Amino acid sequence: MLLSRGEHDMADNIIHFVLARLPGAPKGTRGISLFLVPKFLVDAAGALGARNDVQCISLEHKLGIHASPTCTMVFGDHGGATGFLVGVENKGLACMFTMMNSARLNVGVQGVAIAERAFQQALGYAKERRQGHVPGDMGEAMSPIVQHPGVARMLMTMKAMTAAARAICLMTADSIDRSRREKDSFARERAAERASLLTPVAKAFSTDIGNEVASLGIQVHGGMGYIEETGAAQFLRDARIAAIYEGTNGIQEIDLVQRKLALSGGAAVHREIADMRAAAGVLRNSNAENFGEMELCLAEAVD
Ligand SMILES: Cc1cc2nc3c(=O)[nH]c(=O)nc-3n(C[C@H](O)[C@H](O)[C@H](O)COP(=O)(O)OP(=O)(O)OC[C@H]3O[C@@H](n4cnc5c(N)ncnc54)[C@H](O)[C@@H]3O)c2cc1C
Predict the structure, then answer these.
(1) What is the tens place of the pLDDT at every residue in 62-95?
(2) Dist. CA 298 → ligand 1 center (Å)
(3) 15-86: which CATH number, 3.40.50.300, 2.20.25.110, 2.40.110.20, 1.20.58.100?
(4) From CA 185, how far away is CA 195, in angstroms rounded?
(5) Is 183 left (phi over 0), alpha (psi -120 to 50) or beta?
(6) Interval between CA 100 and ligand 1 midpoint (Å)
(7) What is the residue with the minimal CA distance to atom 37 of ligand 1?
(8) Fold annotation for 97-261
């Protein structure tokens, strides 16, 4: 059951996309078909008819994302539910992957968004909260905690991780756009390959750092981070699911290593590495002070 919110009365009808097997279908993922199962059956003129045999029997109790209901649905307990085949028999998984590919980037962006929110909240708190004195400060008032090196390090780590994840998501989105809009068919193919390579990275890296940044956000708040009132704890509870749904990050690793690194006999990933080396070269030649050690760090990480 995909993304239907289970049961509600905010719409006249609800449609559930359901993966199921037809009788005699091949075993494993090759025998899965996609069906559309409506709450109410619809007649030829589009009018709502009888209630279909699909019931929401409970709401799941979750760690986070409490504004998004997740339901246990039961199909066909009272005689049989009617479903309508979508696409071709036994090709349901391919249909689902059409949705999952865009969903994976969307979930990656959830990681970036929650990390950014956690960072902004932590930075605001660190500027207001005063504790101790930074070395050399002899004043009577205590220092804002943002001035303590340990707190500043956590904030900078949060900011750097979020920026890196945002850049990967943007690169992925750019490649998807190019795969559709480039005039030259060769350029479209190249872009599609790059999008394919980057998608599991965008999903897994961004949602992993979503968790890490939200956790650091709590640490910046000290005890108040553990108290619901500040909202810092909610970011961590809400971030946790993103590394799990739309394919766990473990499954993204498998996709990257087994399928994506092998794209075009490894040419796609080699192009990506060559691009990174070229970026390090541009940084080196720019000799710009603001980039600091960035070129060395990038070159070291690539090679
Ligand atoms: C709040 C919530 C909302 C959801 N919404 C939807 C939805 O709208 N639609 C939908 O279809 N699903 C939905 N899901 C299901 C979700 O996509 C799955 O829970 C998720 O993909 C993981 O599958 P699983 O629970 O079967 O875990 P499992 O597959 O049992 O995985 C357990 C662990 O084993 C690892 N693992 C599994 N297989 C392998 C393997 N082959 N090799 C190595 N490691 C492996 C996983 O990485 C994980 O760490 C939702 C789940 C939750 C919690």
Answers:
(1) 999 999 989 999 999 999 999 999 999 999 998 8
(2) 34
(3) 2.40.110.20
(4) 15
(5) alpha
(6) 13
(7) 251
(8) Butyryl-CoA Dehydrogenase, subunit A; domain 3 (1.20.140)
